[in-house]
Amino acid sequence: MSENKDERIVGIDLGTTNSLVAFMQGEQPVVIPGEDGLNLVPSVVALANDGPRKFVVGNGARQYLVETPERVIYSAKRLMGRGVDDVREELKLFPFHLADDLQAGEVLRIKLGSEEFTPPEISAYVLRQLKKNAERYFGAPVTKAVITVPAYFNDAQRQATKDAGRMAGLEVLRLVNEPTAAALAYGLDRKKEGIVAVYDLGGGTFDISILKLHEGIFEVIATNGDTHLGGDDIDNLLIAIAIDDIQGELGIDVRTSPETVQAIRKEVIAAKIALSSEPLVRISVDLPTGERYQRELPREAFEQIIKPVIDRTIEPCKQALKDAGVTPEQIDEVVLVGGSTRIPSVSQLTDDVFHLHARGKKPHTELNPDEVVALGAAVQANILGGGSKATEDMLLLDVTPLSLGIEALGGVVAKIIQRNSTIPASATEHFTTGVDGQTNVAIHVVQGEREMAKDCRSLARFDLKGIPPMSAGLPRIEVKFLIDANGILHVSAREQRSGKEAEIEVKPTYGLTDEQVETMILDSFDNAEADFAERQLIEARNEADTILAAVDKAPSNAAWQQLTDEERGQIALLKDELFVLKQGDDLKALRAGTEALDKATRRFAELMMDAAVSSAIKGETMDSAGDKLGEGPTAPHPFAPAEISKD
Amino acid sequence: MSAACWSCGSALAAGAPFCVACGKVQAPTADVTYFDVFGLPRKLALDTSTLERAFYKLSRKLHPDVYARASEREQQWSLEQTSLLNDAYRTLKNAIPRTEYLLKLEGVEIEQDRASENGAKKESRMPPDLLEEVFELNMQLEEMRMNQKMGEDDPQLRGDLEKAKTQFEGQLAESDSDLQKLWVKWDAAVDADDEASQADAKNKMVALLDRRRYVRNLVRDVNEALGA
Predict the structure, then answer these.
(1) ipTM score of complex
(2) Which residues of A touch B (CB under 8 A)?
(3) Which of A214, A256, A328, A551 is the most exposed place for a label (fewest CB within 10 A)?
(4) CATH fold label, A525-643
């Protein structure tokens, strides 16, 4: 399959709240809907039963949130690449629980029903759903994807996302930063030049990126953000207020009832969304005691409540401007991305930060803020797939959001790659031994801007092994650090005196080892492939049946007589062939046979259509003309009265 | 060995990142300087907009995005060549890193402006002509910090520090324009192949960068004390 050059590469926005899959259709990126016809797949995973595991993902999983909250995980993105100490506070607001035996520094495991799952596994289930949706849409397997991540994601969070892709059976060709993806989607329509700021406030993360656009090159010059800031925080704030209210007014502590907390959550989210267009909403929640909590929330009060949350986006914006070396006035365009930018006061905030109103400008919101990142991912997927007319001059040059450093003696950080360096970026450092005959050197790599290693994010501990024993200070070990185009670090080392390639043992601080990822590749993956092939065959047989049935009826139509003997003979031949193919299980041949018969009957279909149209003009109703076509609305292409609309 | 393109066999220029004949990316070669990456001589007065255009042009040829469907080997080379290109552009586009890099190529040990091995920040040597000013400034900084600890504010002292800050910032700007004059001197000496003149320009640049680093640290200290 991977040899197939025409295989479509999809673009995936793996979001905190919702996820989407898109691809480039001709010159335009489009979102692929799920079976339910909806573009957004909620990033919610429910374990419906334990016995034979049954997972439900997306909209279907949402009902479990209220019914059996202990069997559902949502917002798993906030837990990706993080340790137990990072999330303990935050988890208090979620209904799910961590495994009891977690050690500091270990990859999180979350209880789901009677089992435990790591955040990348949960994300893998979401990704697999998107993969299925795309396969259903294309009628062909999908194994390659571009996945977006928040620009401010660190190495561990990026690696976790890549791992999730692998578990879902996707080769992740590139991780693209979300704001940059959005810029790509916007940049496709108009050939823009100049400096653009992308403000991306999603469900759980905030990014600000400043880009320079020049002749199709999208050069990120600075990025900043907060991977724990988004719509979730607004929801949690509103939930906390409601819980307090209920405690104060009715004396009921609902925190012990996860079902009620989820009901409140559902209600405040609806209120938040409504307040983007309404001046006032009413919140109403039934309590387990039979009482009802009600409260009116005017938009002004809402804006007061959320101000501390959204104000946290101001500082990253200012820092990004400073790092980019530009003033707000030099920003030509501002693009708003992420569902939370629908809140009027968020839009107002960007206006203030970038002095838009004063300059007669407005932020860009033309593309749906929920979909624009996925659309951009599809554009990048197209570029990686070899490009098309629409993308031929486009090239994305992104940066690393955080400085990379090594812990030196005394716990201070020696920075070796500065933040906002264009990636791929590299740095070479030399190390030596401190003791005679020493054969190991340990290197602690961190990411962040603080002076002390303990205040930065620990990425990994590298153990350089197999150094030839020499006097202290004599070995000269050259270590090369390389951040690839995904923002992921690679390390290689060489002892220069002996020229020996040093062996490196990597202990990722918050990551899974390759071996662990291997064991987590979704169990049912192989089954899914088999299921898929089977489903395709069934669908193809159904298609063949439909066309065969239509051809059977054809001679009774007047148009049939207008065909030449040769045409009729050809149709009969192909019909017999298809009948035989339908009994076998060669999918390709079956499809080819169906297509051949379809092609052979095209002129007949046209003649029939003409007849229908002219009889309609003669005064027959469309409905009866439709009857004359001999087929109901379920017929496939050549016989379908699809060209005739009823109005 | 004279290098040939792995793909089409055409002869390659030394250190060429891609083959001019067939456009394929080549294995990175050791000892390529950042100047080589752009095919530039080791001169300092660079037009940054020309450099930017060259950077974009090379990026279009070397970037991993262009090699997403190529062999694993080419992907790896593209990654290494692009990281070299990016490192080179980042270094050469800014005046100070560019000068420091050239001096390093010329065998000068540049003081690293980051935490050193023993964890303490290395202080640059104080330029002798600044002795008096620095002595007074340090007294004022000490007083300011004491005031802050006590929660007091002395407008007079604050004013003095603001003035000192403006003065040192002026010196920074001055050193930048002095540096540009030294670039011209260096470049001319390179063109004339005048070794003595090159050595002179080099030594002056080293001294100027030392002083500049010192003054910049002063400005940083004053900013910290002023809480800016």
Answers:
(1) 0.85
(2) 5, 173-174, 214-215, 217, 380, 383-386, 395-397, 408-415, 421-427, 451, 482-485
(3) A256
(4) Substrate Binding Domain Of Dnak; Chain:A; Domain 2 (1.20.1270)
